[in-house]
Amino acid sequence: MSEILQMNNSDSAFIIANVSNSHNDAVAFEMKFAKDLTISQLKSKLEILTGGSAGTMKVELYKGDTLVTTLSNNDAKLGFYANCDGLRLHVIDSFVNFTFDTETVEKFELTKDQYEQRTDSVRNFLKQNRLGKYNEEEMRQMEIKRREQAEEMQKRADLCVVGSRCQVTVAGNPTRRGVVMYNGQLEGKNGIFIGVQYDEPLGKNNGSVGGKSYFVCPPNYGGFVSPLSVEVGDFPPETFDLDDEL
């Protein structure tokens, strides 16, 4: 699983993450944050964006709907917790977090037009300050970057023909050699993944993920990685001849 989380943005000084808050889970907006921000500095920025209090807020890190961790160390850097795009920062502010009895309190709802006309909404704040999707130039640059990454991903994936010898390089792991066994999507995951049977038991599975088998190999010989981590070529299995050692 750690191989899947470590995509191709680990060298960037920034991450792009969605921001949501406990008072309106339906409203989420995309922002770019420097990885060298301390959690304390991050909370100050989120205070401006969400209207919460930096001194009382709790920030949770999600990947999809799965809670990854709580950003509890105010002195730690954001990059320590988050090193790839596509994550979500969820703000919970206990200072203004009131609980209502939904059975007795009348539900108050706004139409889309009524919400557009409000001046105290998150959407209006983002528009006035040209943040997130309302910063046209930033959104255009992000779209260009996403398109370029998608094209490069597809180009590298096309080279990963099943049966080809390959070398896999993933940050935080030793370089491994093996054979391409699968090329495609994984159920419940976004993007393309390359399934590899390694020459040595340096993998994390037997070709199965989430109970579904994509190829068959011995336990701990299989792994799924981004196409950007795979180099296809003439990579013979590594041998260790102990007789030649002194």
UniProtKB/TrEMBL annotation:
The keyword Chaperone applies. Signal peptide: none annotated. Its main location: cytoplasm. CDD domains: Ubl_TBCB (cd01789). SUPFAM superfamilies: Cap-Gly domain (SSF74924), Ubiquitin-like (SSF54236). Coiled coil: none annotated. GO terms for biological process: cytoplasmic microtubule organization; post-chaperonin tubulin folding pathway; tubulin complex assembly. It is found in: Cytoplasm. InterPro entries: CAP-Gly_dom_sf, CAP-Gly_domain, TBCB_Ubl, Ubiquitin-like_dom, Ubiquitin-like_domsf. It comes from the Eukaryota. GO terms for cellular component: cell cortex; cytosol; microtubule plus-end; nucleus. Keywords: Chaperone, Cytoplasm. Residues 184-226 form the CAP-Gly domain. Pfam families: CAP_GLY (PF01302), Ubiquitin_2 (PF14560). GO terms for molecular function: alpha-tubulin binding; microtubule plus-end binding. The keyword Lipid biosynthesis does not apply. Belongs to the TBCB family. This is Tubulin-folding cofactor B. It comes from Drosophila hydei (Fruit fly). The lineage of its organism: Eukaryota, Metazoa, Ecdysozoa, Arthropoda, Hexapoda.
